[in-house]
Protein backbone atom coordinates (compact mmCIF):
# COMPACT_ATOMS: atom_id res chain seq x y z
CA UNK A 1 0.00 0.00 0.00
CA UNK A 2 1.38 3.40 -0.99
CA UNK A 3 -1.33 5.32 0.87
CA UNK A 4 -0.02 8.57 2.30
CA UNK A 5 3.15 8.57 0.19
CA UNK A 6 3.91 12.02 -1.26
CA UNK A 7 4.45 11.77 -5.01
CA UNK A 8 5.19 15.39 -5.87
CA UNK A 9 8.28 17.50 -5.22
CA UNK A 10 7.68 19.67 -2.20
CA UNK A 11 9.28 22.85 -0.91
CA UNK A 12 8.28 22.86 2.75
CA UNK A 13 8.94 25.79 5.08
CA UNK A 14 8.44 24.72 8.67
CA UNK A 15 6.83 28.00 9.65
CA UNK A 16 3.14 28.76 9.61
CA UNK A 17 0.71 31.61 9.33
CA UNK A 18 -2.17 29.27 10.19
CA UNK A 19 -3.77 30.16 13.52
CA UNK A 20 -6.41 28.45 15.62
CA UNK A 21 -9.16 30.79 14.44
CA UNK A 22 -8.31 29.92 10.82
CA UNK A 23 -9.27 26.28 11.30
CA UNK A 24 -12.57 26.54 13.21
CA UNK A 25 -14.73 25.36 10.29
CA UNK A 26 -12.08 22.93 9.06
CA UNK A 27 -11.94 21.19 12.42
CA UNK A 28 -15.72 21.13 12.81
CA UNK A 29 -16.27 19.29 9.54
CA UNK A 30 -13.09 17.26 9.80
CA UNK A 31 -14.44 15.93 13.11
CA UNK A 32 -17.71 14.99 11.39
CA UNK A 33 -15.79 13.06 8.73
CA UNK A 34 -13.65 11.41 11.40
CA UNK A 35 -16.72 10.33 13.37
CA UNK A 36 -18.12 8.66 10.24
CA UNK A 37 -14.70 6.97 9.71
CA UNK A 38 -14.34 8.67 6.33
CA UNK A 39 -11.13 10.31 7.56
CA UNK A 40 -8.90 8.29 9.84
CA UNK A 41 -6.20 5.62 9.81
CA UNK A 42 -5.95 1.97 8.85
CA UNK A 43 -4.89 -0.73 11.29
CA UNK A 44 -1.30 -0.37 10.07
CA UNK A 45 -1.31 3.25 11.20
CA UNK A 46 -1.37 4.84 7.75
CA UNK A 47 -3.79 7.75 7.61
CA UNK A 48 -6.38 8.46 4.95
CA UNK A 49 -8.64 11.34 3.95
CA UNK A 50 -8.03 15.09 4.08
CA UNK A 51 -9.87 18.40 4.10
CA UNK A 52 -9.04 21.86 2.81
CA UNK A 53 -10.34 25.41 2.63
CA UNK A 54 -9.35 28.28 0.34
CA UNK A 55 -7.07 30.83 2.01
CA UNK A 56 -8.90 34.16 1.83
CA UNK A 57 -9.46 35.07 -1.85
CA UNK A 58 -6.38 33.44 -3.35
CA UNK A 59 -5.61 30.03 -4.85
CA UNK A 60 -3.68 29.28 -1.66
CA UNK A 61 -5.41 26.92 0.73
CA UNK A 62 -5.15 25.38 4.18
CA UNK A 63 -5.16 21.57 4.18
CA UNK A 64 -4.86 18.88 6.84
CA UNK A 65 -1.30 17.64 6.98
CA UNK A 66 0.24 14.37 5.93
CA UNK A 67 -0.11 11.54 8.47
CA UNK A 68 -2.75 13.33 10.56
CA UNK A 69 -5.47 10.70 10.12
CA UNK A 70 -4.34 9.04 13.35
CA UNK A 71 -5.45 12.02 15.43
CA UNK A 72 -9.01 12.26 16.70
CA UNK A 73 -8.74 16.06 16.81
CA UNK A 74 -6.36 18.51 15.18
CA UNK A 75 -4.71 21.81 16.08
CA UNK A 76 -3.25 24.50 13.83
CA UNK A 77 0.03 22.56 13.90
CA UNK A 78 -1.69 19.70 12.04
CA UNK A 79 -2.53 21.90 9.04
CA UNK A 80 -0.38 23.31 6.26
CA UNK A 81 -0.80 26.36 4.04
CA UNK A 82 -0.20 25.55 0.37
CA UNK A 83 1.15 28.69 -1.29
CA UNK A 84 1.98 27.51 -4.81
CA UNK A 85 1.41 24.52 -7.08
CA UNK A 86 3.06 23.91 -10.45
CA UNK A 87 1.40 20.88 -12.00
CA UNK A 88 3.68 20.77 -15.05
CA UNK A 89 6.75 20.57 -12.81
CA UNK A 90 4.97 18.28 -10.30
CA UNK A 91 5.96 20.65 -7.51
CA UNK A 92 4.21 22.14 -4.50
CA UNK A 93 5.16 24.78 -1.96
CA UNK A 94 3.77 24.79 1.57
CA UNK A 95 4.26 26.20 5.05
CA UNK A 96 3.42 24.69 8.41
CA UNK A 97 4.47 22.64 11.38
CA UNK A 98 3.46 19.60 9.32
CA UNK A 99 3.86 18.94 5.61
CA UNK A 100 0.81 19.22 3.36
CA UNK A 101 -1.26 16.15 2.56
CA UNK A 102 -0.14 13.82 -0.23
CA UNK A 103 -3.45 14.67 -1.96
CA UNK A 104 -2.72 18.41 -2.05
CA UNK A 105 -2.15 18.45 -5.81
CA UNK A 106 -5.70 17.20 -6.38
CA UNK A 107 -7.16 19.80 -4.02
CA UNK A 108 -5.15 22.53 -5.74
CA UNK A 109 -6.44 21.85 -9.23
CA UNK A 110 -10.06 22.07 -8.03
CA UNK A 111 -9.44 25.46 -6.42
CA UNK A 112 -7.66 26.67 -9.55
CA UNK A 113 -10.30 25.44 -12.01
CA UNK A 114 -13.39 26.48 -10.05
CA UNK A 115 -13.06 29.94 -8.46
CA UNK A 116 -16.40 29.58 -6.65
CA UNK A 117 -15.16 26.52 -4.74
CA UNK A 118 -13.84 27.33 -1.28
CA UNK A 119 -13.73 23.85 0.28
CA UNK A 120 -12.63 20.36 -0.77
CA UNK A 121 -12.98 17.10 1.15
CA UNK A 122 -11.38 13.77 0.28
CA UNK A 123 -12.77 10.72 2.07
CA UNK A 124 -12.41 6.94 2.02
CA UNK A 125 -15.32 4.50 2.09
CA UNK A 126 -15.04 1.17 0.30
CA UNK A 127 -18.74 0.25 0.19
CA UNK A 128 -19.82 3.60 -1.22
CA UNK A 129 -16.79 3.79 -3.52
CA UNK A 130 -17.87 0.50 -5.10
CA UNK A 131 -21.44 1.73 -5.39
CA UNK A 132 -20.61 5.12 -6.88
CA UNK A 133 -17.74 4.01 -9.14
CA UNK A 134 -18.56 5.01 -12.75
CA UNK A 135 -22.05 6.09 -11.66
CA UNK A 136 -20.54 9.49 -10.89
CA UNK A 137 -17.74 11.26 -12.75
CA UNK A 138 -14.74 8.99 -12.27
CA UNK A 139 -11.01 9.41 -12.90
CA UNK A 140 -9.31 6.65 -14.96
CA UNK A 141 -8.29 3.44 -13.22
CA UNK A 142 -4.69 3.71 -14.40
CA UNK A 143 -4.17 7.14 -12.79
CA UNK A 144 -2.76 6.96 -9.22
CA UNK A 145 -3.60 9.41 -6.45
CA UNK A 146 -1.44 12.41 -5.60
CA UNK A 147 0.18 12.78 -9.03
CA UNK A 148 0.20 15.45 -11.70
CA UNK A 149 -1.58 12.90 -13.91
CA UNK A 150 -4.40 12.81 -11.37
CA UNK A 151 -4.53 16.60 -11.38
CA UNK A 152 -4.87 16.60 -15.17
CA UNK A 153 -7.57 13.92 -14.91
CA UNK A 154 -9.56 16.09 -12.52
CA UNK A 155 -9.18 19.04 -14.90
CA UNK A 156 -10.58 16.81 -17.64
CA UNK A 157 -13.57 15.83 -15.48
CA UNK A 158 -14.31 19.49 -14.76
CA UNK A 159 -14.12 20.36 -18.44
CA UNK A 160 -15.95 17.40 -19.95
CA UNK A 161 -18.43 16.08 -17.35
CA UNK A 162 -21.12 17.38 -14.99
CA UNK A 163 -18.81 17.18 -11.97
CA UNK A 164 -18.98 20.96 -11.36
CA UNK A 165 -22.74 20.64 -10.89
CA UNK A 166 -22.66 17.37 -8.93
CA UNK A 167 -19.72 18.52 -6.78
CA UNK A 168 -18.45 14.97 -6.28
CA UNK A 169 -16.29 12.44 -8.13
CA UNK A 170 -14.74 9.03 -7.63
CA UNK A 171 -11.12 7.96 -8.13
CA UNK A 172 -11.03 4.59 -9.90
CA UNK A 173 -7.29 4.25 -9.42
CA UNK A 174 -7.45 5.02 -5.70
CA UNK A 175 -9.50 2.36 -3.92
CA UNK A 176 -12.04 3.92 -1.51
CA UNK A 177 -11.23 7.45 -2.72
CA UNK A 178 -14.06 9.96 -3.14
CA UNK A 179 -13.75 13.77 -3.53
CA UNK A 180 -16.43 16.40 -2.85
CA UNK A 181 -16.32 20.17 -2.94
CA UNK A 182 -18.53 23.22 -2.52
CA UNK A 183 -18.80 26.94 -1.96
CA UNK A 184 -17.94 26.26 1.68
CA UNK A 185 -17.22 23.31 3.97
CA UNK A 186 -20.87 22.96 4.92
CA UNK A 187 -21.91 22.49 1.30
CA UNK A 188 -19.07 20.07 0.55
CA UNK A 189 -20.04 18.03 3.61
CA UNK A 190 -23.72 18.08 2.67
CA UNK A 191 -22.83 16.63 -0.75
CA UNK A 192 -20.99 13.77 0.93
CA UNK A 193 -23.80 13.01 3.34
CA UNK A 194 -26.35 13.14 0.51
CA UNK A 195 -24.52 10.67 -1.71
CA UNK A 196 -23.20 8.38 1.00
CA UNK A 197 -26.51 8.17 2.83
CA UNK A 198 -25.15 8.57 6.32
CA UNK A 199 -27.13 10.10 9.14
CA UNK A 200 -26.54 13.69 10.13
CA UNK A 201 -29.04 16.00 11.73
CA UNK A 202 -30.46 18.87 9.69
CA UNK A 203 -29.55 21.12 12.59
CA UNK A 204 -25.85 20.39 12.03
CA UNK A 205 -26.07 21.23 8.35
CA UNK A 206 -28.23 24.31 8.86
CA UNK A 207 -26.51 25.86 11.85
CA UNK A 208 -24.25 28.84 11.32
CA UNK A 209 -20.62 28.09 12.07
Describe the structure.
The chain has helices at residues 24-35, 104-113, 126-132, 148-160, 163-166, 185-196, 202-206; strands at residues 9-13, 40-41, 47-48, 50-54, 61-64, 79-86, 91-95, 119-124, 138-139, 168-171, 177-182. The protein contains 7 helices and 11 strands. The longest helix has 13 residues, at 148-160. With 209 residues, it is α+β, with helices and mostly antiparallel strands. 30% of the residues lie in helices and 23% in strands. Strand 2 and strand 3 form a beta hairpin. Helix 2 (104-113) packs parallel to helix 4. It has a single domain (9-198, 201-205), classed as L-fuculose-1-phosphate Aldolase. The strands form 2 sheets. Strands 1-7-6-5-4-8-11-10-9 form a 9-stranded mixed β-sheet, sandwiched between helices. A two-stranded antiparallel sheet has the order 2-3.
